[in-house]
Design brief:
With 693 residues, the protein is α/β, with parallel strands linked by helices. The chain folds into 3 domains: 231 residues, Alpha-Beta Complex (Spore Coat Polysaccharide Biosynthesis Protein SpsA, Chain A); 189 residues, Aspartate Aminotransferase, domain 1, CATH 3.90.1150; 244 residues, Type I PLP-dependent aspartate aminotransferase-like (Major domain) (Aspartate Aminotransferase, domain 2, 3-Layer(aba) Sandwich). It has 26 helices and 23 strands. Helix 14 runs parallel beside helix 22 and helix 24 packs across helix 25. The longest helix is centred in the last third of the chain and has 23 residues. The chain is elongated. The N and C termini lie far apart (81 Å). Bound molecules: pyridoxal-5'-phosphate.
Length: 693
Amino acid sequence: MNIGAIVQARLSSSRLPAKVLLPLAGKPVLWHVLNRLKHSKRLHTIVLATSTLPEDKKLKEVADEFGIPTFFGSLDDVLSRYYHASRQYKIDPVIRITADCPMIDPEIVDEVIEHFLEQPYDYYSLYGNFPDGLDTEIIKFDALRTAFEEAKLPSEREHIGEFFKSNRDRFRTGVFEKFSDKSNYRWTLDEPEDNEFLKKVFGELYTEGEVFSYRDVFELLEKRPELLEINSHIIRNEGYQKSLQEDKKFLTEIEKEMTGPSLYKKAVKIIPGGTQLYSKRPELFLPELWPTYYSKAKGVEVVDLDGNRYIDMCIFAVGACVLGYADEDVDRAVKQAIDNGSTSTLNCPEEVELAQLLCHLHPWADMVRFSRSGGEAVAIAIRIARAHSGKDKIAFCGYHGWCDWYLAANLGDSNALDGQLMPGLPPSGVPRSLKDTALPFAYGDFDGLEKIVKKHGDELAAIIMEPARDLPDKGFLEYVRKTASSTGTLLIFDEITSGFRINTGGIHLTLDVNPDIAVFAKAMGNGYPIAAVIGTKEAMQAAQSTFISSTNWSERTGFAAAIATIKKFEQENVAEHLMKVGQRIQSGWHNAAEKNGLNIKVSGIFPLSHFSFEYDNSLAISTFFTQEMLKKGFLGWVQFKASYAHKDSHVNSYLIAVDEVFRLIKDALDANRVEKLLESSPAQKGFYRLVKN
Ligand SMILES: Cc1ncc(COP(=O)(O)O)c(C=O)c1O
């Protein structure tokens, strides 16, 4: 153990510059501090810790006189100065002494050390009734390191005890008590009056070669109480109060920094692409002004980082939260799953329960595999289809995620995915050997699919498509089903977005066409990560002839969320609610457009509604729409995804706002001023859903 005092000193004191070098009984103030500490019987080491400012070099001369080493560190970050000094001199515990306390008492320092050593404290300091100027604090080195690593506030960096005081639950802290209240005694040096007081006391008590004690000072002050009047009016801890003001400034700055748009600027530097999901990029909505981040979401309400509250009438977590945000029934099930251990060496029974539930809802399906996200689940389905058939090629329609098998479509013809949901996806990083393995066809294009089948029929492993986004073309699904069956190709329905919208399960149940495999994600877990690949026994058994396996696919919360979501969805007839809400929204858009003379096109099944402004500058207009809806307290865009939490009152107030904003748009269009009225740059066009003409 190396018990060491670190004496902090600097010349740049604002109230009394160079105070620690002021003369006191013929010696600098700092000299007295060091001299008195030298009389401690418990200290093994004393170090002077000052700043790297050139002027502070002078302080070293005083320390040299006692053979005390000087450490040079940060001027303002005193915590770092202490940490680095104690590390360099291997001090533990560390005693903090300030150089403006020339009456520091070695006897008290020793007593404090003794008490500290008797108890397992991390931080130990004087009780608040001591005279101001005997300040002695002791910190274990490990605790000091934690503070050094974690403390953020200016007050915590400047006054090293602060971090421990405000984190008493994490540190063992204690206080040293000794005598009755002496907090009106002021023995420190901050102001000229303090200097006058100290001079008087030293004039009376100091004798060269000796160290007077706090008892001598008590006696003197009892005899000559008028001395107290010299400086007792000065407010104690004024420096500390100042640093609390610094804290306030600091926190305000942080708050300012924490607005969504400014955080996003940081995000793009540290997260390639800015976000994990393309569809949550602010550039798609209102580039510089979209709130981008949320602090809380409940029901249909989203609170941004500034505390602004919005009703979400937009993509609603990209369709993931079909019951509404933080649904209590789903969250209860998830919390229970967490409390019971979200994972273990053994499997959780919920995966079997969810598999049974999905097969019960889809009587044609016999088996189920699970994963966590949509694109991943589609990749599993494609692997199963390829393993099942021993063939490589996939005919597809629509968007199916980020994986290689899908982006491969753009290897041959870089525009192959145009006309699908997301145009212009670059296939960089996808092996060129996958060229010509993913073959697109358009929804409702009988001839297109027939051509693929004619040319590649023998090599086709699967046909994959969303059964419907909009109302399906008559007979098309039946045609695809027949084609798949007649060519021995598996038919995969991607129900990641369409599932659990118009009925409990896949939309194909209503359309009355069964696939061989169907894939679910999004709504099925009400926002918790869970995805399912369900299929006939014949198709799904192929999963055993290849390797499909991942640790987190066995985790419990996703299953628990999905079971709770599906049960509630069914019991409360959520699908009917989603249809009604979506229908009201679509007719509300129509009515507002008609009333205000705007040309819009509305599409999508009711729970996944969409409209577009039919003008050349449609992107600028939709950006303006989002901008003005935001001002009215709505996250509003050209898409609306319905949730069970959307009630009539939300729809009513939203449609009033839409009407008002459509009026503004009409006025702006008439005056040719849409672009001028934009407070942000126009949104970028990117991931859009296929809109059938
Ligand atoms: C039809 C369809 N397939 C696949 C995906 C990809 O799902 P995820 O984003 O969960 O990977 C989506 C996502 O929007 C989708 O709509």
